[in-house]
Give the backbone structure.
Amino acid sequence: MKQGEHTVTHGHAPRVAVLRAADRAGALASALSAAGAVPVLCPLIDHELPAGSELATARTALQRLASGAYAWVVFTSVTAVRAAVELSASADPDSADLDGADPTSAVLDIAQGTRVAAVGQATARAVRALGAGVDLVPGGEHSARGLVAEFPAVIDTGAATVLLPAADLAAPTLADGLVERGWRPERVSVYRTVDAPADPSRALSVPVPGALPVPSGAQRLEPSALAEQLAAGALDAAVLTSPSTARRVVDLLAGRPSRTGYLALGPRTAAEATDLGLDVIATAPSTDPSGLAAALAAATERTS
């Protein structure tokens, strides 16, 4: 399907599908609702804690973060913050038992003197809600590229190690960029991205710090019904918050063209969606829900 060949119905509040994990949908759904849209919730992806050697490596790295072994820690998503909290609360790095975390007393254990960077304002708010400070949020592009562009130069090469707690599917953009700037990034997988729903025994239990509730006017769809509405153009738009979400949409469509336009969070998601044949009508200027709401307004103006 060519760019722009989607159906947008005017004269009513646009129905916009929110496809991210249910525990992350509140802020985005609230922002869309405030922008005059009706959010339609249908989680397509979810998150699980790592297993095996990945689990042990992540726990050990977070213990080292608490002891001051890193000059910086960089969080590229709210989910990474949640997973770091949960794994930090699990006492034994050699144990596979995930029941050591207490979701009611979530804290982020970062040694004094370790600096903290966040990819965008939503991630920064999650860090601050746990009582930690944030030293860097990119003022330009809220992405791995934006972080690299504004990351400070190395002053002490002996203390240039940066912890990157990330998803198993995270692109190497941030790590590679920091290497080019003289830093020594240490990337560890603190969560895995899976098709919704997650395995209850491995699902994240720590609540999203400072999460907003889903607005009362939100609608809900099952994935099979979502696929039908995307193919029919019954939705005015759908929000793609990650490349994995775009891939899941294509799987659900099962070869059918989509008559719905998509709002992409960030250039990487937009590029993946476009490569997969989805019609990206706008790319959000930031990772904040308000950025996606602004993209929706701009896309609606262009199609009216």
